[in-house]
């Protein structure tokens, strides 16, 4: 489920490569409710969460991000989801050093453990050593990179590219900036930035630019809502709880 939020390329020299973290800090956690709809009727189908901590990996300071997605037990018979993703990335450059994916989506199971060497531009998996370009991202690190983009530098329709390594392959992806608007979620009404990520085809999503994402129009850039058609029906994911943000949630207009 979360890898369907597999997004975001950049090459050395692009602004994206030089981004520094101003959007989040260790201890932040954000929780989402997953709604599924057929014929316009939405039901609570699951939960998703993101949490961050500050750790050391090979004596190197890293952010350890844990992202999990779970379908509710009552809907497991339709499509059971038990996903867990972990990314360990450099606190200064936000470049990934280690990535772990352990998923179960409708019976499709996958375990992946990747070590990134940013000096040699390689990714080491259980299946071999792969050459990767500078500024490569994993599924989760790209998500946090996105939060640090200065969207004021872009015009509606602009693409913001990046490269991501997954399943032993390098993917050229992008997010398309759509502009700013007001969005009303289950949590409240927000000033928001709208983007469309280019998705990889997966077990839930067909790929392409079919998903819309709204993030807070403030310094946190927390995703507020993901919405996309799937094979049957529509899925909508709304932010429902947050803790220990780096900045005040100034984008919130009303509850």
UniProtKB/TrEMBL annotation:
Pfam short name (any one): DUF3108
Superkingdom of origin: Bacteria
Name assigned to this protein: DUF3108 domain-containing protein
Organism name: Filimonas zeae
């Amino acid at each position: 489920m979360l890898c369907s939020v597999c997004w975001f390329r950049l090459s050395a020299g692009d602004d994206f490569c030089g981004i520094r973290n101003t959007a989040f800090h260790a201890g932040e956690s954000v929780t989402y409710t997953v709604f599924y709809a057929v014929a316009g009727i939405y039901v609570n189908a699951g939960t998703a969460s993101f949490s961050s901590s500050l750790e050391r990996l090979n004596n190197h300071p890293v952010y350890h991000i844990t992202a999990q997605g779970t379908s509710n037990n009552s809907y497991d018979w339709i499509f059971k989801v038990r996903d867990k993703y972990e990314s360990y990335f450099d606190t200064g450059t936000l470049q990934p050093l280690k990535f772990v994916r352990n998923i179960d989506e409708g019976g499709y199971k996958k375990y992946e453990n990747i070590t990134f060497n940013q000096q040699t531009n390689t990714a080491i998996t259980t299946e071999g050593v792969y050459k990767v370009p500078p500024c490569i991202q994993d599924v989760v690190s790209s998500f946090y990179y996105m939060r640090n983009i200065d969207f004021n530098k872009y015009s509606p329709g602009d693409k913001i590219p990046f490269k991501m390594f997954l399943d032993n392959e390098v993917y050229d992806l992008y997010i398309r900036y759509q502009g700013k608007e007001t969005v009303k979620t289950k949590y409240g009404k927000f000033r928001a930035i709208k983007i469309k990520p280019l998705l990889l085809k997966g077990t839930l999503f067909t790929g392409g630019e079919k998903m819309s994402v709204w993030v807070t129009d403030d310094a946190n850039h927390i995703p507020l809502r993901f919405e996309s058609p799937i094979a049957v029906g529509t899925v909508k994911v709304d932010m429902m709880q947050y803790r220990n943000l780096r900045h005040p949630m100034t984008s919130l207009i009303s509850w």
